[in-house]
Design brief:
mainly beta; Porin; 13-stranded antiparallel beta sheet; 5 helices; 13 strands; globular
Length: 272
């Protein structure tokens, strides 16, 4: 008996229309305040590359630019292999609705080889996940129900708040698909955007906000992700600057034993 498909696979599933041309649709389970959760859009754009028969290696980098609002309903994704060699392939993709570009992405795939490796960075210290409370989803966007959040630091229990204080933008939390799902590049691309926009943590207020561009670097190959399985990852996020309507955001995803799996950076927009 075939098991039921995970919601993430339904939301990022694509139908091939021709070489480098795919059809998909938004999913209500990943709805955000306006349009779909950005992480599921990033995952769908990456999935178009992953299922393209011309791909010859695992992804090592993904940059997604959110050009405009994505409406509920169908969309098309076009992939172009810009250039490929023995070690890397460079891809560009566009997500369109009714002929209008809503998001673009570039992906780099790279053939990893068993050569010299070094891991100077150390994972953050955190207590066991089992002793931490699950974040309440009450009043939160629908997409948050697709993840388990257990905060070690910088939670959102007091959001929104009107104390006028600026708090740390840093958070540390265990993050996992809900229901749990074995890790792969599709879920990792979405998880990399599962951090809340940093102004929420810093100001504690609500205003229009969105990710404009995000870049994720993948530090594991497909077999290493299979070995991790459905283990929750420890997510760390912070910001360095909020200035005139735009802010940066850095993030990292670790296995509980301190192995860096992915990290990245975003530029986000906010309105007073």
């Amino acid at each position: 008996m075939q098991s039921e498909a995970h919601t993430l696979d339904e939301a990022t599933g694509l139908v091939e229309l021709g070489e480098g041309w795919y059809a998909g649709a938004t999913h209500p389970a990943y709805a955000n305040m306006a349009g779909p959760f950005g992480g599921v859009t990033a995952a769908a754009l990456l999935n178009a590359v992953l299922i393209d028969p011309r791909r010859s290696a695992d992804p090592i980098a993904l940059t997604v630019n959110f050009c405009g609002a994505i409406a509920e309903g169908e969309f098309e994704i076009e992939t172009k292999l810009q250039r490929g060699g023995k070690t890397t392939q460079h891809w560009s993709t566009e997500l369109k609705q009714k002929g209008v570009v809503c998001a673009t992405a570039s992906a780099v795939c790279g053939a990893r080889k068993p050569v010299w490796s070094h891991y100077p960075v150390k994972g953050p210290t955190a207590p066991p996940r089992e002793g931490l409370a699950e974040m309440s989803k009450n009043g939160r966007p629908e997409w948050t129900r697709r993840y388990s959040f257990r905060f070690v630091e910088g939670g959102l229990d007091n959001y929104p708040r009107d104390d006028g204080l600026i708090h740390s933008a840093r958070t540390l939390a265990y993050i996992q698909d809900a229901p749990e799902r074995p890790l792969d590049f599709v879920s990792l691309a979405a998880l990399a955007d599962a951090f809340f926009v940093r102004i929420i943590h810093a100001r504690g207020t609500f205003q229009p906000m969105a990710t404009v561009s995000l870049t994720t670097y993948f530090h594991a190959d497909a077999d290493e992700l299979v070995a991790i399985g459905a283990t929750p990852l420890l997510g760390e996020a912070d910001a360095a600057i909020f200035h005139n309507g735009f802010a940066d955001q850095t993030s990292a995803l670790w296995t509980p034993d301190g192995r860096l799996v992915a990290n990245g950076v975003q530029i986000t927009w906010y309105k007073e």
